[in-house]
Amino acid sequence: MANLKVNTVSGIGTEGPVLNGGLHFNSKNYLTLPKGTTTERTATSSGISTVIGAIRYNTDSNKMECYVNNKWMIVSTSTPTLDGGARGINGMGANPSVINTIEFVTISSAGNTTDFGDAQEANYASNIGTVASRTRGIFFGGPTSGGFGKRIEFITISSTGNATSFGDFDADPSEFPAGASNETRGIQAGGTTTNTIQFITIASTGAGKEFGDLTRAHRRPAGCASPTRGLFGGGQVPSPASRHNIIDFITIASTGNAQDFGDLTEALDTAMPCSNSTRGVWAGGNNGSAKLSTIQFVTIATLGNAQDFGNLTSTRMAGAGFSNPTRGCFAGGYTPTAVNTIDYIALTTGGNAVDFGDMSYATPSGIFGLSNAHGGL
Length: 377
Known about the structure:
CATH architecture of the largest domain: 6 Propeller
Low-confidence stretches: 78-83
Helix content: under 10%
Number of helices: 0
CATH topology of the largest domain: Neuraminidase
Strand content: 35-45%
Largest sheet: 4 strands, mixed
């Protein structure tokens, strides 16, 4: 095989050099592709046709493009890029009437929430269970206007619009469950007086199925995930009322009972959880005598106790948590005054949260949170 070693090529003509056969690049540095604005793309102007399979970087959209089926298509990436970044979704609550509002933010930016749509059934709960894939967001559990709810609803995260019915969980209706998921499976864990774990297949619709049991029956745990593991931290045993600091874990792709992972830094419930593929984070919560501003984390692939990360901008509980691979966000909650604040942290480092923006409303009754770029994806 012959080697062509060229430092600079210029003045070759309007179409550039044509190389036939296999072309190999052995550089360990990088390859710079053609780039330009949308209007600078060659289509069929000046008698030159764009070749199927051509690739370039669009400086208007800041995205890679490939010419397929006679049109330019954005090259897909492993991290969702909707409206400039992954979406965080929060919604519902009561203040004082039950709320069915769903809102969203673009996690990579900062700013106030935008209206997404409405849930079919208004729901109010501290830690409504949620799971999500890159395309679907699903929420379940918590008390509704008609009593405890085992109803499951879903939204398509890349669009906006009202939620659609997914199905129901088979087990007894459950208040205040936790959720965790990877791209395929969504997990519901715990609830008012149950240690039941159930799962759904996110891409389908239908009833939940038996997975196993938590190490204890409790409500108001907070769940997060990597692609392989689901973690459930803290919670409350309702009668007699007590809180605990236990972290359980499961292997999402299998079924079976949860195992002990370690402990949170203190006993609490209604924390706001989020994660990337490496770290699981719990922010705020209620230890029984006070609302908390503490943020703590674990390394999901190991076992062990949580460590201090930093603090929220204020003490609060029962808000929403959502994340992309680099940012964790915490929306709403109450102190006990209801707040509409959204904080964010850099997940890969430690430190205190800073202001992100505001929700359009405040509720003391808890809201749900999810994203299409969380740690389980």
